[in-house]
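Input structure tokens:
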């Protein structure tokens, strides 16, 4: 399929020089998807290798939220910012971390698995094998759960308020640890726009007031500008920067 995509793109836009792919889960530095709680049965899957073979092109595979952060940092809601966290609120929750102007991947490439921070000890069971993970309360799956429990079948203000409280709880923890100046909210739930972001900002401000008060400058919370495409755009940017020809090929994005 990717090989066919290459043919189509080259017919339309000219030469394709590299492939970038964003994957949901723990992606190591060789482009293997090591663990993916939301893709049952996928364990230690080599993605970059077979894709390179199928396309005859160099391939970069990275975590999808990290890719989304790269895109938003270069082209979207985190432009011009040095310290930011992007969270993708979808089936689960992922995060991309930008600290001191550089994208962070950690020692193994697995940094930013914020969806599996435990926010309720002994809470809801998570596909990762633990209980009480943040993504069980603040993701798209969590919203479905809240809607199922509510009297109305649509997410009303009360349900969104509950969801926003859980989203803000995790974000407040991240701000405490990382001291970022900007939070970008992406993933499927970002489509809710201000209906979600406004109560998240209010809850986050209340949490900040309680911890650090006026000392800590307010954190700006913005919706992702590139929407659902952010991961794909970021993966392409990473591939072009790392593997493409030209003066920028040395890997400025890290
Ligand atoms: Zn989990």
């Amino acid at each position: 399929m990717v090989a066919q995509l290459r043919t189509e793109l080259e017919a339309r836009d000219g030469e394709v020089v590299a492939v970038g792919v964003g994957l949901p889960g723990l992606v190591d530095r060789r482009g293997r998807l090591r663990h993916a709680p939301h893709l049952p049965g996928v364990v230690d899957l080599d993605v970059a290798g077979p894709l390179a073979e199928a396309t005859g092109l160099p391939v970069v595979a990275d975590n999808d939220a990290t890719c989304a952060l790269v895109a938003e940092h270069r082209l979207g809601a985190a432009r011009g910012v040095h310290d930011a966290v992007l969270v993708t609120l979808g089936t689960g929750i992922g995060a991309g971390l930008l600290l001191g102007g550089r994208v962070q991947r950690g020692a193994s490439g697995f940094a930013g698995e914020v969806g599996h921070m435990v926010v309720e000890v002994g809470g809801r069971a998570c596909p990762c094998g633990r209980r009480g993970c943040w993504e069980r309360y603040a993701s798209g799956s969590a919203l479905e759960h809240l809607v199922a429990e509510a009297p109305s079948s649509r997410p009303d203000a009360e349900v969104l308020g509950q969801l926003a409280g859980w989203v803000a709880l995790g974000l407040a923890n991240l701000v405490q640890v990382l001291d970022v100046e900007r939070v970008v909210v992406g993933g499927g739930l970002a489509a809710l726009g201000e209906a979600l972001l406004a109560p998240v900002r209010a809850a986050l401000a209340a949490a900040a007031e309680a911890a650090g008060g006026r000392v800590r400058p307010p954190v700006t919370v913005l919706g992702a500008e590139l929407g659902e495409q952010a991961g794909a755009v970021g993966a392409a940017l990473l591939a072009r920067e790392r593997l493409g020809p030209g003066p920028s090929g040395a890997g400025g994005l890290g």
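Residues 115 and 135 are 5 Å apart (CA to CA). Residues 157-178 form the longest helix (22 residues).
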